[in-house]
Amino acid sequence: MGFTFGNVPITMTGLSIRLYILSSFTHGGHTMSNLLNVANAKTIKGEALGYRTHILYLSSADQSGHEVCNDRSDACTKFCLDKAGRGRMQSVIDGRMRKTRLYFNAPSMFKALLNKEIHRAIANKSKRDLELCFRLDGTSDLGLGIGFAKRHPTAQFYDYTKSRKRLEMFAAGNLPRNYHLTFSWSGENRDTCRWALENRVNVAVPFVGDWQGEAYPAHFMGFPTIPGDTHDLRFKDPTPRVVALKAKGYLSDDNSGFAVRPVTMTNYEVYA
Questions:
Q1: Which end of the chain is more exposed for a tag (fewer CB within 10 A), N or C?
Q2: Would 225 be classed as within a structural domain?
């Protein structure tokens, strides 16, 4: 007897202790959803540049009872992109919750399933297909991509992070060459953001307001900005750059310092 996760067969032999976890993933008795998503309003823009991104979305912060973003600030928790678009749908929330609980309660099974999905995507790609890339911390900050980048050296992996440890490893060249990181502004990590830029690691920052007729300033903390909403292929960006993201939704009303406004420009050394 077995189940399938997407089209991946899972035999039950030796997995009796996982029955409760498996039952929470079943749909119609026998079929579970894939771990990876490929349809995303932002990442799909990368297809025009020849790349298809596969993203793993987990329940952010500690919503599942397990922490997946150790370095989050209160503001980034409040305005997390997991609440954007389809992320507000109950079916999506439930699916991410099940994935997260599977990761923490049966990590070996989770990683085996994820590895099968990545392997299949790579194996099924023809020469005429789009190039593949994988972002495994779509709504988490666990560093999942590092191990899989080692397993699949011909594929491109990338993520955003607020982890100082992983930032330093990336800046020192101690992560796989096919794993790219962009550091993320939290409103509380300015010094680390400056360190990242000084060490040629890009930093993603949300901006709000009118910057002399533009959605973001030409420079931030003394470094040039580049648009971050035209695509999500951060491994294609020049360095060192501030990746400027336009604050959207509730974030556009933020006054905590997470979304940077023109009124704060002297505090953050913004140069036109």
A1: N
A2: yes
Does 178 map to a domain? yes
Q: CA triplet 219, 197, 43: central angle to 5 degrees?
A: 80
Q: What are the residues whose beta carbons fall under 8 Å from the beta carbon of 219, sequence distance 6 or more? A: 225, 242, 270, 271, 272
Domain assignment present for 253: yes
Instruction: Please write the tens of the pLDDT for every residue from 121-178.
Output: 999 988 778 999 999 999 999 999 999 999 999 999 999 999 999 999 999 999 999 9
Nearest to 120 by CA among 11, 48, 44, 112: 112
Matching residue, tokens 């993201």: 245
Edge-first strand order for the sheet with 8-11 is: 8-11, 2-5, 31-32
| DSSP run (H or E) holding 4 | strand 2-5
Is residue 20 assigned to a domain?
no
Number of domains into which the chain is organized = 1
What lies within 8 Å, CB to CB, of 107 at 6+ separation is: none
Q: Write out the residue range of the structural domain in which residue 116 sits.
A: 34-264
Q: Is 239 within 8 Å of 201 (Cβ atoms)?
A: yes
Nearest CA-CA partner of 60 in 157, 139, 132: 139
Strand order in the sheet with 51-56: 36-37, 51-56, 131-135, 156-161, 179-184, 203-207, 242-246, 223-227, 219-220
